[in-house]
Amino acid sequence: TRNLIFILGDQLSLSLSSLKGADPTQDMILMCEVVEEATYVEHHKLKLAFLFSAMRHFADEMRAKGFCVRYVRLDDRDNSGSFTTELLRAIAETSPRSIIVTEAAEWRVLSAMEDWQGSVKLPVEVRQDTRFICSTTEFKAWAKDRKALTMEYFYRDMRRKTGLLMNGDHPEGGRWNFDSENRKPAKPDLFRPKHHVFPPDAATQEVLALVERTFPNNMGSTENFSFAVTRTDAEKAADGFIRDFLPNFGETQDAMLAEEPFLNHALLSFYINVGLLDPLALCRAAERAYFEGHAPLNAVEAFIRQIIGWREYIRGIYWLKMPGYETSNFFAASRPLPDFFWSGETDMACMSTVIKHTITHAYAHHIQRLMVVGNFSMLAGLDPYAVHRWYLEVYADAYEWVELPNVIGMSQFADGGFMASKPYAAGGAYISRMSNYCESCRYDVSQKTGEKACPFNALYWDFLARNAESLSGNHRLAQMYASWRRMSAGTQQAYRSSASAFLGKLDDGSRV
Ligand code: FAD
Ligand code: DLZ
Ligand code: SF4
């Protein structure tokens, strides 16, 4: 063997940098399912099954291109359980002249990779991951000397860099951002198109059995498997999104409906994150839909912004702040996660619905993650590290580089505002405006305090009051603190004692 090309589970792209110049007659591909990766958190069963099945199908795709693929399955008898030991075993058995890899997306794995040069005694070439539009070096240069890392300015640079929705130097439609036309609630719609489902093929069924047998106690059930696991099927899902959902993507982006967990969302993050879909190609397809008159600008701009703006920005923040970002805890919050995070058994209809969807699908959309579970976690003072671990476990698209800044920075404000200019905190009124959850809830969203009142209401004010020292200087919260100060001592007290009664129940494990 000339080069041994080691491809990780989230590197399933034909354009992968480690495959540049690869020659099937001389080079060998190594892929392995390892227990170390499968257990660093207790991943949802659907997440494990999706990844292993996508890896196995990718190995077949490369074999069809003539490559020799050394593929180590999780239950192979000689599987030594980690990337490093599997690399060493492969080297001993295949005697390559050098090792080629694409940089790992996560700090934990990249730091192991950086030690390989010393331990394998062969040349190890670590190549940049060119599937991102902005390299980590470029992001660091962008961030240097800036007082605030505002996503919107970063996004404009990415629009200029890619030329997406640009007329020369000017944004298409005369504005960079059309979100003022978005953020509408949604109504149930029996005629809304359905997202593609992909029934498991024989190879996936084998993986489902493996996962069920090896990880019986992890969240979820392998019975609900419907992910695409091949590039062809992922592309089908992408085409379906552009045809059926993109035209309405913007308007209902922030809406939530109990009976429609997916609304007009893409359900493509899983495929993008493992490399089955190319983010830039997807944006170009969305742009085409706009120029062909199939989808309006507010929708297409919003979709493109999520990908070349948010997704790239989040990755930049991750590499700027790691290691150490994962233990950020600005509010010194320490409450453990309540058991209902794993069962959905709570009387709060919003939390129950989102968590149960999560258990069933290993998916929840952005506003559910941010304004329901994330918001509750921050208001209730849950330990942000534990919250981070939960998100990393339960969502099929969760890899630390993308999950961590979204959780620690955006949703928990645990980095003290490095990323977000104010905490995404809201009382029940927000959830009630953007969803229909409250209609079926035991709690009453219009009551502020007391046993029947929506817990988010008192928790919201209690959160502001107990963190006044760290937050009251934030000018974006000035109005809220002014409202708090205008309340009578009695009202303030009622909020605080309602919140503490609720938190007391959380702490003693009573049903809430
Ligand atoms: P859509 O809503 O249809 O958006 C289209 C695409 O935009 C997504 O596929 C995704 O690639 C990209 N995107 C949108 N928002 C973000 C964002 N904030 N960060 C990165 N990419 C974005 N996304 C993950 O991929 N993995 C995670 O582990 C993850 N954890 C999150 C945790 C929290 C607390 C929050 C608030 C957000 C998280 N996100 C995560 C971002 C976002 O919620 C998901 O990307 C999105 O819900 C995926 O579903 P979709 O494909 O239907 O997305
Ligand atoms: C998430 C994950 C899991 C659960 N298992 C594997 C695996 O067995 N083999 C593998 O190559 N990759 C796995 N992954 C994805 C890796 O964790 C991911 O590629 C690294 O974190 C690099 O970012
Ligand atoms: Fe959630 Fe409160 Fe509405 Fe119940 S009333 S669904 S707890 S926001």
From TrEMBL:
Protein name: Deoxyribodipyrimidine photolyase-related protein
MF terms (GO), sorted A to Z: lyase activity
Keywords: Lyase
InterPro entries xref list: Crypto/Photolyase_FAD-like_sf, PhrB-like, Rossmann-like_a/b/a_fold, UV-DNA_repair_photolyase
Pfam families in alphabetical order: DPRP
Organism: Rhizobium soli
